[in-house]
Design brief:
- With about 90 residues, the chain is mainly α.
- It has helices at about 10-20, 20-35, 50-65, 70-75.
- The longest helix is centred in the middle third of the chain and has 19 residues, at about 50-65.
- The radius of gyration is 20 Å and the shape is extended.
- The N and C termini lie far apart (about 55 Å).
Amino acid sequence: MLKTVYNQKYYQIHVMLKKPEFIKAIQWLKDRFEYFDIPIPENGFKKYQEYLDWNERFWNKVTESRKSNEFIEAVDALKDDNGKIIGW
């Protein structure tokens, strides 16, 4: 019987996934998807097609939000007199 050997990157990621600040950041991201009505399934996508459907809904929301007045006004507020975005 062969023993599985993991490399250093595996162990680094394993530690990172357990850090409270990483868990908090992931939860914030999940909450944002939920806010925009494109929740990520708690146990992941069961099938690739389920992911593809979710991905399509995600990009539709991105397109929709970029056409919103709120987004357009926010971007305009970041532009200088020449129309160049100067910062966040």
